[in-house]
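The following record pairs a protein chain with its ligand, heme C.
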Amino acid sequence: MRHVWQTLAAIAVLGALAGGTVVAFGLYNVSARVGHLPGVSWLLHTTFRNSVRLRAEKPDDMPDLRDPALIELGARHYDTACRTCHAAPGEAQSATAAAMVPAPPHLDAAVQDWQPHHLHWIVANGVKMTGMPPWPAQRDDDVWPVVAFLTSVQRGMTDPEYTALTRLPEGKAPQTYCLGCHGQGGSAHVPPLGHQSAAYLEMSLRAYLDGTRASGIMAQAVGEVSPEALDDLALWFAQQTPEPGPFPDMPAELVERGRALAHAATADADVPACAACHGPNASEASELFPVLTGLPAPYLRAQLFLWRETGRGGSRQAELMRKAAQNLDDSDISALVAYYATLQADESDMEHE
Ligand code: HEC
Ligand code: HEC
Ligand code: HEC
């Protein structure tokens, strides 16, 4: 038995020495031109596929992946973040992308074999040692728009459909890029910006830039313009006339419950009612407290879950908001969303309390 152990130990030492020599003298050729040794590509790719199938879990709360607003948001993000490597539907990949080792598959091929939860896992986690990057924020819910887009590619999205979906307004000003998503009052998942103060918008853009407010989509978007342009963009958007808001139909009892909750004193003496900070008739309003009137319901809902589950983040004032959200249950959130999403701007002048 002792012999066996001694032999194994000797083999291990020789192996380590051989490995060390290869590393120390640069004997391994890292040239991507040469490609991998025979069989290595197959080994890595098979490991990748099996690893995804093992780890990706089907969530209980998948959003509606056929929601056109979700697909458009995903397509617009894809256009700046992923297209350089995987190309658009019906478009050839660039020579440089095609020369990568391993080469990123063309979009049409990349989505073929996967179910939505697999695609979510791949886009959230990336693939080590391949150039496929992970999602640039510690947050999983904002990966779903990209998955919604990828599944519509599976269903056969055409080149003209893609072009129409990702079209930008005319002009060269930096805000034309932002208006692709934030134009016309935003969408169900993209907040309109004209309601907010320049101070709040500017603070939010800096928070996306330094990661204190996590969003893979906005982290990519702020990187598309120069940091010096951010203050001007905040000012420009704050000066736009706010769109009146979608004002969805909501059950009257739910809105009533939301109204009561928004005005009720909280259990924590340090935390005032929502309305004290966000209105209507806010008594403690500051330029850094966002206006909620006219924001779309799905966006409000997503943000309240983020505040409660992750503490969201943004300014130094975020701590106040974190406390205000920490004890809300799901039905409180539904009621508050119903109230603020249907609150007409002029109601704040009519209500006297
Ligand atoms: C810098 C280049 C690069 C960028 C940017 C990039 N990818 Fe990839 N992607 C790759 C490479 C390389 C692979 C192949 C990994 C492998 O085969 O092991 C890959 C694999 C994938 C796959 C799995 C395809 C398969 O082999 O089954 C999907 C899906 C995918 N990427 C989607 C995206 C999305 C969505 C984005 C943007 C959020 C993105 N990628 C950004 C390089 C990139
Ligand atoms: C691909 C779509 C997309 C583009 C392009 C985009 N945004 Fe956004 N923006 C979003 C989404 C989605 C959110 C919500 C993110 C979150 O959950 O925090 C958002 C949030 C914001 C917020 C926070 C608003 C609030 O009420 O808290 C600001 C400010 C903002 N964007 C400004 C900009 C500016 C300025 C640009 C151009 C440089 C831009 N965005 C480009 C999609 C986009
Ligand atoms: C003490 C003041 C305060 C109270 C009370 C408060 N908030 Fe906030 N809220 C804030 C601040 C400050 C922010 C922005 C923080 C940041 O981004 O750094 C915010 C952000 C939000 C946002 C995100 C808006 C956007 O455009 O992204 C929502 C939604 C929200 N609050 C809802 C509520 C609700 C509902 C309540 C009551 C349960 C509440 N808030 C109570 C101060 C407050």
